[in-house]
Design brief:
This protein is of the alpha+beta class. The protein is built from nine helices and seven strands, in the order H-H-H-E-E-E-E-H-H-E-H-H-E-E-H-H. This is OBAP family protein.
């Protein structure tokens, strides 16, 4: 799946160039799922389905972002997250998150990204489930692999004031074979000194980029203050999901 062919005003020609060698397919999944090797019959069925079946939702995942998350309430548990995104409109983006960007990547979860305008309208308790993207953009830790710098800069100008709600369903940092346990709420970093710099360095070397240089390049991006309610863990308001066995739990919001 090619996810770095994004068109912005004035940059369509630049982005029509093949740039797949810039770090967008070089991260293998650290997880090996158990199971028998695909049979010839399965491979034939897949080839036929690839030709005959429509995949419009997948084709619309045309923005690729790479960043880092941690479990809400457990900052020491950090991981890289590859986001393949669909921009539904100017205020809402939805993303499927993988543990890599190669063919063997495992789906880790989803993220919903909304504009500052929509975040302001959320109920107080709901806001505590969302994190800001201000630091991720300004620090250079959130990147769009493969995009020319000028196009990535324009994309980050749009993302810097947004808010994300991230849920991981496969905790590939610890569950190396199958997705176990319940879903967990994730958060984003908000200041220097929080993120594992060795992890960032490994990403940078693999993708042949420089987080420090991107930080310098983004110094001119206007970043409004984070709205009250987001990043609630910083005020001790940690939120996390629980798995319940009550029969009527599925009908309760």
């Amino acid at each position: 799946m090619k996810a770095n062919r994004v068109c912005y005003p004035g940059y369509a020609l630049l982005l029509s160039v093949c740039i797949s060698a810039c770090g967008d397919q070089n991260t293998r999944s650290p997880v090996q799922a158990p199971g028998a090797k695909k049979s010839t019959k399965t491979e034939v069925l897949e080839a036929g389905a690839d030709v005959l079946q429509g995949k419009e939702p997948l084709r619309n995942m045309n923005i690729y972002l790479d960043g880092f998350h941690f479990y809400s309430g457990a900052m020491q548990a950090q991981m890289e997250a590859h986001h393949f995104c669909t921009k539904l409109n100017e205020d809402v983006i939805q993303a499927v998150i993988f543990d890599g960007n190669a063919a063997d990547a495992k789906i880790m979860g989803v993220e919903y990204i909304i504009s500052r305008r929509l975040f302001e309208k959320l109920p107080t308790e709901e806001k505590k489930l969302w994190h800001s993207h201000r630091y991720e953009v300004k620090s250079g830790t959130l990147v769009a692999p493969g995009l020319p710098n000028v196009a990535e800069h324009e994309l980050m100008e749009q993302v810097v004031s947004t808010y994300g709600k991230t849920i991981h369903t496969w905790h590939t940092d610890r569950d190396k074979e199958l997705p176990l346990g319940g879903p967990l709420l994730m958060m984003g970093f908000t200041q220097d000194g929080q993120i594992d710099t060795a992890m960032v360095g490994q990403r940078d070397r693999r993708m042949q980029i420089s987080t420090a240089e991107k930080r310098r390049q983004r110094a001119d991006i206007a970043a409004p203050d984070v709205l009250s309610g987001a990043d609630a863990w910083q005020q001790g308001q940690v939120r996390q999901f629980e798995v319940t066995q009550r029969a009527n739990a599925a009908h309760q919001h």
